[in-house]
Amino acid sequence: MSDVIEETPEGEVITVRPFQTFPHVKDLVSDVSWNYEMAKAVAPIKGPEEGDWKFSQFEAKRAQEFRMCIECFICQDTCHVLREYKKFDVFGGPRTMVRMANFEMHPMDQEDRIPEIKDEFGIAYCNITKCCTDVCPAGINITDNAIIPLKERVVDRYYDPVKKIWRLITGEKVRK
Ligand code: SF4
Ligand code: SF4
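A: This is the predicted complex of the input protein with iron/sulfur cluster.
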């Protein structure tokens, strides 16, 4: 609160409200259990049977940013796709994207989550407004570092015309 008070012009009222996106329980308490359901639905990291666990500093740092998440769910509350449009059935929201990016970019991970990122978690619903990034207290660059790279992976898998033709010729499936 001290930061908020410092940044607020003198005389301006500071209003504290419960989340708008999630069911209100009492006072400032909301039921955020949906977020934990989403977290459980993300396939965990699947490492190789045998690995030497050597990877570059860049690879380690890239995933490390996502581990800063404190699960405050402010990003979920801010995202209009959830807050205004209530797309809980088709979109996982920014926090879920951060979790998936954390696993997807783990240097030893071998799980294939791209079909789920596209379908179950509905990454196409994000229109990159960056509101989630603006409010993240952990300073995670949600949009640029998590969502956009995941979108690129989906586009690369499903919408690359050369790969589409290749799949038509070879009968190769989209899930690797
Ligand atoms: S960038 Fe995407 S996930 Fe973030 S608030 Fe906007 S629509 Fe939601
Ligand atoms: S706002 Fe940041 S810290 Fe909070 S849940 Fe979202 S990603 Fe995690």
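The beta strands are 24-26, 29-30. The chain has a mean pLDDT of 93.
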